[in-house]
Amino acid sequence: MTNHHNRNGFTLLEVLIALTVTAIAMTAAFQVISSSSGSQRKLQDGTFARWVAETEMANMQLGLVKPAVGESSGETFMAGRTWHWQRVVTVAADPTLRRVHVAVSAEDTRETSATLTAFVLADRQK
Fold it and tell me: What digits encode the pLDDT tens for the residues 61-94?
């Protein structure tokens, strides 16, 4: 005599294994999405910070800001956020030039998002 069982559906063990596999897959997908979102934010911050640094450098190159040797800092509002910049001006090997280094960070992070270094004329007039 043979024992025949009709199987309609899944066993509890099969359901638990399927749920475990699904949970692992969803966790991995969430981590990928989270990482991608963080990378996008960092890239966006770097872009805006670079624009702030380029604006500060352009002001010096156009003679709108005198390239006085020393450190200075300020804030710029761009893209709905406040950006802090710090500028360091030193005398270059050629005394008619100034080496200008600008570092920019977002107000909410204070982590440097962009830096820019260039040379400007020391005696540029407005």
Answer: 888 888 889 999 999 999 889 999 999 999 999 9
pTM greater than 0.70 = no
Q: Which residues does 2 contact at the CB level (< 8 Å), separation at least 6? A: none
Which pLDDT score is estimated for 77? 93
* Ranges of each domain in the chain: 12-121
Q: Which residues pair with 87 in a beta bridge?
A: 72, 102
51-90 residues labelled b (16+ CB within 10 A) or e (exposed): bbbbebbeebbeeebebeeeeeeeebeeeeeebbbbbebe
Does the structural domain 12-121 have CATH classification 3.40.1280.10? no
Phi, psi (rounded to 5 degrees) for 9? 110, -165
Q: Token pair for residue 92? A: 């270059």
